[in-house]
């Protein structure tokens, strides 16, 4: 509509020019009236030109206002576009930050999960190891209990050994005997005849106390037999059994007898009962080299 209006304003309507007619005979007398008619024709022509100029100025004004309005709208659109670009950039940065935090959180969660799994596996392995050790100890203790029961049943003596239990002896005999009962072989030979007249007592099935430490040392020595005195079992045997048997007055004799027994060079000969009177065997006789 604006373009058509501008075209119309640029193409003003054609106005015919005044063409004077041939004067007639009667026109000569009226020249003033012709001038008046010419002035009347020029007046509408100037009015039309004024209207055209007004239309042109109004169209220019409208065009300027339209262009100004469009420029304002363009500036507004550019501002909105810049704001949207900034918002998009901010949102993209927020998204990147969230993605990075999410990756870090996922990595930390996986690491913590792997750590917990490793700790659980370690604890489970330790618990299984302790369980196996406990079952092994239980089996060993059960075997020891079974062996102890068998040993108690099969090796219970008919009467208690008074030499190993001094509290069962009479005060006079307990004060007279020093060390182990096997120190004086001659006295045992003299009383052998009297002991034959003693009636055997029935086998007692009562429970006998067994040294569990000694039994454990014996089992350890049985698994790997050795004659080294550093072995706990042999050290106990030398200290509690061999030592009291060789507790002579003369230490040299005790050492010689011990070495002879270890080297298997000791000879024991029976002594006739009539050659050695009963009651005259003293510690000096037992301690003599002969």
From TrEMBL:
One GO cellular component, as annotated: Golgi to plasma membrane transport vesicle
GO process terms (BP): exocytosis; protein transport
Listed transmembrane segments: none
Comp. bias regions, Polar residues: 44-58, 156-172, 184-198
GDP/GTP exchange factor Sec2 N-terminal domain: residues covered: 64-133
A GO term, aspect molecular function: guanyl-nucleotide exchange factor activity
Keywords: Coiled coil, Guanine-nucleotide releasing factor, Phosphoprotein, Protein transport, Transport
Keyword Translocase on entry: no
Pfam families per record: RAB3A-like_C, Sec2p
Coiled coil location: 67-115
Source organism, top-level taxon: Eukaryota
Ranges where the record places region Disordered: 1-58, 156-202
UniProt entry tagged with the keyword Coiled coil: yes
Similarity remark: Belongs to the SEC2 family.
The protein, known as: R3GEF factor
């Amino acid at each position: 509509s604006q373009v058509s209006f501008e075209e119309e304003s640029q193409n003003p309507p054609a106005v015919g020019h005044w063409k004077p007619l041939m004067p007639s005979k009667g026109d000569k007398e009226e020249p003033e009236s012709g001038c008046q008619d010419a002035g009347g024709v020029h007046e509408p022509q100037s009015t039309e030109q004024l209207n055209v100029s007004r239309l042109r100025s109004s169209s220019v004004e409208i065009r300027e206002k339209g262009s100004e309005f469009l420029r304002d709208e363009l500036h507004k659109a550019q501002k909105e576009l810049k704001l949207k670009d900034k918002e998009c950039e901010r949102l993209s940065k927020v998204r990147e930050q969230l993605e990075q935090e999410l990756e870090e959180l996922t990595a930390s969660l996986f690491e913590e999960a792997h750590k917990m799994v490793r700790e659980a596996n370690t604890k489970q392995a330790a618990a299984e190891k302790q369980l196996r050790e406990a079952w092994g100890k239980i089996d060993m203790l059960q075997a020891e209990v079974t062996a102890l029961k068998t040993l108690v049943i099969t090796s219970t003596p008919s009467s208690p050994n008074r030499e190993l239990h001094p509290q069962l002896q009479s005060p006079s005999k307990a004060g007279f005997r020093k060390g182990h009962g096997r120190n004086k072989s001659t006295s045992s030979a003299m009383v052998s005849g009297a002991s034959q007249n003693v009636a055997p007592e029935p086998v007692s099935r009562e429970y006998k106390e067994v040294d569990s430490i000694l039994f454990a040392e014996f089992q350890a020595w049985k698994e790997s037999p050795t004659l080294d005195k550093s072995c706990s079992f042999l050290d106990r045997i030398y200290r509690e059994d061999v030592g009291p048997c060789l507790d002579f007055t003369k230490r040299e004799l005790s050492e010689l007898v011990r070495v002879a027994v270890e080297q298997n060079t000791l000879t024991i000969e029976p002594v006739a009962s009539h050659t050695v009177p009963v009651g005259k065997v003293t510690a000096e006789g037992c301690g003599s080299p002969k």
